[in-house]
Amino acid sequence: MEAEGMVIHFPEMDKIKQGLEYFIVDRDGIKEKILFHDYDKIYEIPGLYEHLFYERYQCNSPEVVCSLLQEQMGEPDEDTEALSVLDIGAGNGMVAEQLVGMGAESIVGIDIIEEARDAAVRDRPGLYEDYHVIDLTDPPSEVDQSLQRRDFNCMTVVAALGFDDIPPQAFAAGYNYIAPNGWVAFNIKEDFIDTKDCSGFRCLIERITDADLFEIQIKHRYRHRLCQDGRPLFYWAVIGRKLEDIPDNMLAGLA
After folding, report:
1. Which letter does DSSP use for residue 231 in this model?
2. CA–CA distance, 58 with 187 (Å, rounded to integer)
3. Maximum Cα–Cα distance across the chain
4. 69 by DSSP, 3-state: which?
5. For residue 240, which of 198, 186, 189 has the smallest C-alpha distance?
6. Of 67, 71, 115, whose CA–CA distance to 92 is shortest?
7. 3-class DSSP state of 47
8. Which of 65, 168, 197, 230 has the most CB atoms lying inside 10 A of its own CB?
9. First vs last Cα of the chain: how many Å apart?
């Protein structure tokens, strides 16, 4: 890929671990190594995020997760409640674009880096009714109050769980902004919900389902994208209904 004043190189790799993938940006002979998870640097270059993940490495998670959500919701009719969505780990609006296509009435984005919000405004203006750059585990009081007043009936978290971007505590905080019986749609790498998982998400999901706080409607394994070495990376997409809030004591011991 070439952009104004720069050339981007993608080294050929063999057996590299997801999270350690990288590319080289050459700006007038000055080279910089950028990891795939250096989202702040990636969002600063228009079109790079899409080229990297969606064109070159064939990510299809926004489409898969939102399509499954739509299937579970069924065909909209005059009695269907319009979607009011809290989109966590919103990035530059790839998921919001899918949600608008589904007819979502209102979408509020949350991300922890300003570059994500700037990219969403730049690349997909008008999709978000509001977009907060906050840490969900410690939101400013005025943002917390604003989110509580929204009465969201859907939460989406796509391609943002399990790599320390969004810890279980942040997931729970977002979950608790959703109204009872609201939809919850997320995906997560299969490694993070197997029996060896150390991220805490497997335990959290088990706890909230066993306690009848969350009811899974569908769980679907699919290819999230290709790794830089060409291997397929498999994720689980989960669509369910929130039944009750997650209490603080249910987060004890989660990494």
Report:
1. -
2. 16
3. 60
4. helix
5. 186
6. 115
7. coil
8. 65
9. 38
